[in-house]
Amino acid sequence: MPLPSGVEAPPAWSPTPEDLLALTTAFETALASGPAPAPAPAERRPVRHRRVGWWLALGALLPMFVLFLRTPFQDWLPIGDVGTIALRVAEVGTRHTPLVGPYSHFGWSHPGPVLFELLAAPYRVFGTRGLLLGALLINGVAMWIIATRLYRAGGVAVAAFGIGCFWATSWSLGLSWVWYPWNPNIAMLPFAALLVLTWTSARNSRWDLPLLALVASFLAQTHVAYAPFVVALVPIALLGRGRRRAPGLVPPPNPPRAARDRAPVFLAIAVLVVAWLPPIVDALVHDGGNLRDLVDFWLTDHQTLGFGSAFRIVFLELSVRAPWIGFHEPTFLGAVAPRGTPIPIGLFLVVGAAIAAWRAGDRFALRCALTVLACIGVAVLSIARIVGFAYPYLVFATRVIGAASVLVTFWIVVRLVRRERHPRLHAAITGVAVVVGIVVLAGCTISAGRAGIGTADEQRASSTLSRVAAAALPNMAHADRVRVDSGASFSGSSFKVGLMYYLVQHGYAVTTEGSDRLRLGSHYASSEPTDTTLVVTAGPQEFDRVASTHRLLAESARPVRFPVGAPPPRPGEDPYVYLRRVSDRVDRATYRRLVTYMTGRYPIAVFESG
Q1: Do residues 471 and 448 lie in contact, with contact meaning Cβ atoms separated by under 8 Å?
Q2: N or C terminus of the chain with fewer C-beta within 10 Å?
Q3: How far is Cα 522 from Cα 534, in angstroms, rounded to an integer?
């Protein structure tokens, strides 16, 4: 192509000897090295099918499935605290819908009515058996969260071992507690679920945020003993969700994706509003209401348990003879009382695992270990603030913490083995974990096939009261509104609640004395006139006291009469003190009759006034 006029051509390129030598060297090197090797394929993580997690979750629910199949055949009458819960559940959806939670013997109620609301739907459909189904539903959802979230974050080994650990906590109490709708024990597995959600918050789906809001609200409202753990764990879980992506991996703005990410946040806010609206309304309507009573109680000076006992109780669940594994829980006068200071092996394991995770640079494992350590600290602080005795139901959370200490140590070991790429060792650990999970599940499933409802004594008393109430109703005068009273004993008060529930189920409007307003609500403590009054008695002494002024409707067993010639007990005297006092003042035959009379077990009777 001719150049335009006036433009000079560029100078021609002439290679120098150095250029030729460089080209020759490059060609020789390329020919000597041969074809370039193919790039090494990137290391691929094993594919975890979603159905494996579902199968693990279904296996974890096997004991509950056995209890579910047994539910239609249960003829059960709730008494005591569970009877109180049943009466409050019956009010949900009426103009007497409860705004506060279950009653506490400290003179206030637990923060909110979420437990009543969750039990109300199965109760409306299935009646009393619906309370058992509702408890199974709550614990089933908690175990499903545990199984699926542990599988997503840790794989088969961690999920199987975690299922075994947390089922062991229920097995140690007895499978009769799994479908028992009592607020201290029904919160155990949900507490384990909250702990798992806190561990895995940075590695699970965005829909875990509404689950976190629901589980945390349920725990804080159902039993106030779990509220300190909720306050500690929820910020840790939210902090973990905030670190889900490194700053350099944040995707570019995408309006549809942003809308999808906001949906779980809005749903979590809706869950919180629905859950906490009733106690807030109670506080606004009643000048602070129950929440104010709670705050006043905890700000008032009381004789508390102290840190010495708190450390011993927590360390007991972290020792090699921990009750959550199945060892005997030492008690004195019904309260947990460890002998000496147990060696907290679980605490040492968690600290060692945290140090190993820190040295390995595994921030996720370190966060899990520190979460368990935080729970141990919260448990010590909260137990030290217990007023009175540390009854076992007040420290159920320590069983979950003991299981969590073993689980998190195992999890960190699995992560370190996987990091060092020891496939055979990892396969062996997985096999051991699966065997542990299967053994515990098999034991729980067998126990579920013969489990009762609550304690054995309570179940016998419930069955007896149910028979007595069924026999009393045909003998009662026609009435629409019935007042139910009882003797002064704890058993009499417990049976009174059961009789009230029985009457409610048969269409009667029931009331009781005004002193039960806090426990049962204003609806059941109404001062309106009634058509008749029933009195339920427990024990021979109450029977004799009421029989002189009331008409007997039905009784479980006629109590032995007071022995003729024996000195009467002093007013309010303890039966065993009385027996020791008169042991040398009566003959042996009379003393045996006195023992039978003074220590008779639950002879139940129902009387009618007039």
Answers
A1: no
A2: N
A3: 19
Answer whether residue 521 is part of any domain.
Answer: yes
Beta bridge partners of 329: none
Q: Say whether 268 sits in a helix, a strand or coil.
A: helix
Distance set, CA 363 to CA 239, 356, 402, 515 (Å):
13, 11, 22, 55
DSSP at 79: -
Nearest to 504 by CA among 132, 125, 133, 89: 89
Q: What is the structure's pLDDT at 39?
A: 46
66 found inside a domain: no
Q: Which of 394, 382, 391 is nearest to 337 (CA)?
A: 391
Rounded to 5 degrees, what are φ and ψ at 211? -60, -40
SS3 486: strand
Q: Between β-strands 481-486 and 550-555, what pairing exists: parallel, antiparallel or unpaired?
A: unpaired
Tokens 């007040």 sit at which residue? 394
Residue 250 has pLDDT above 50, yes or no: no
Residue at 319 is within a domain: no
* Higher pLDDT pick, 507 / 260: 507
* Distance separating alpha carbons of residues 335 and 549, to the nearest angstrom: 39
What is the extent of the structural domain holding 503? 456-609
Q: Which DSSP symbol is given to 539?
A: S
Q: With 60 as the cut, is the pLDDT of residue 275 above it?
A: yes
Return the higher-pLDDT residue of 159 and 581: 159
**Dihedral through CA 430, CA 435, CA 436, CA 440, nearest 10?**
140
d(CA 546, CA 556): 15
Q: Quote the CA–CA distance of 231 and 213 in Å, as a whole number.
A: 12
> Measured between alpha carbons, how far is 378 from 282 in angstroms, rounded to an integer?
28
Residues 159 and 56 sit within 8 Å (Cβ to Cβ): yes
If one counts the domains in the chain, the total is: 1
Task: Note whether residue 324 is domain-resident.
Answer: no
